[in-house]
Specification:
It is flat and about 95 Å long. 79% of the residues lie in helices and 0% in strands. It is mainly α and 281 residues long.
């Protein structure tokens, strides 16, 4: 029996190598085509906003009262709601990142719930809680406090839908902080509050800023919960997304101008988050 190992002829080897190169080239072309189609699908609608309106019409629309009112209200309410989320969300994120207590999984689930909750459901839930006949609102109404269909309702809706974006990012940032630094501070006599303020939060600062920026962007773009709980009143509850919905029916240039502003803010948010994420690592 011949024990000489089987060897392929050079022609067969070259043929198989050619087929492999053709297969790789075909796969590369397929992936490139899929990527190009997806990028086209994402960028074409955004680019169409800029192509649909002239610079003159854009600047003219910025002077419209509905645009100015919506822009100023959105920036003010989103800023305030983000501040509220940071103040109340930071301790919660720190506790959940550093302590294991009974019911923590439930707290995490409830914290993340607004992310998956449909905006309309969030709006009607807020209305049933804080409306004039709501679970809490009925008692507030007895002392003359009414939150539904006011600017306060806008802020409450934004806080409700935007808080998970900050809390999730903050929790992840705190978990990424090496406990060695915290333990060293404790051995030097630092109190838990001092450790949090002087060690943990500064080390997680980049992630906290990223989470706050994401929360601001989510609050700025909120629509469903706001229109259900706060209504759509110009100068009082009509934020930019609501103004786009309203002006689409009569002033398309104003709607496109507001949309372009939101696109620019969204792009700035993404760029800021990427910069802060790189710095945090």
């Amino acid at each position: 029996m011949d024990s000489t190992p089987f060897r392929q002829s050079p022609e067969v080897t070259r043929c198989e190598g050619g087929l492999a190169r053709v297969s790789r080239a075909g796969l590369t072309l397929l992936v490139a085509a899929l990527v190009a189609l997806f990028l086209l699908f994402v960028t074409l609608p955004v680019a169409s906003l800029f192509l649909r309106i002239s610079p003159e019409a854009f600047l003219r629309s910025l002077a419209e009262p509905v645009v100015l009112d919506a822009l100023s209200l959105s920036l003010a309410t989103a800023t305030l709601s983000t501040a509220i989320v940071v103040v109340f969300g930071t301790p919660l994120a720190l506790v959940n990142a550093r302590h294991d207590y009974p019911g923590r999984a439930i707290v995490d689930t409830l914290t993340d719930l607004p992310i998956v909750l449909p905006p309309a459901v969030a709006g009607i839930a807020l209305l049933m809680a804080f409306g004039r006949r709501g679970v809490v609102g009925q008692y507030l109404d007895h002392v003359g406090i009414n939150t539904a269909f006011t600017t306060v309702a806008v802020i409450l809706a934004q806080v409700f839908v935007a808080s998970p974006f900050y809390i999730r990012q903050a929790r992840a940032s705190f978990e990424a902080v090496d406990r060695l630094y915290e333990d060293a501070a404790r051995t030097l006599g630092a109190s838990p509050m001092t450790v949090a303020l002087r060690v943990t939060i500064p080390l997680a600062w980049g992630g906290l800023i990223s989470g706050a920026i994401l929360s601001f962007a989510r609050a700025l773009g909120e629509f469903g919960a706001t229109i259900m709980f706060a209504g759509n009143f110009q100068g009082r509850t009509q934020t930019m997304p609501l103004a786009i919905y309203t002006t689409m029916q009569g002033d398309l240039d104003a709607a496109i101008s507001l949309a372009i502003i939101l696109v620019a803010i969204s792009f700035g948010v993404i760029a800021s988050v990427k910069i802060m994420t790189r710095r945090s690592f």
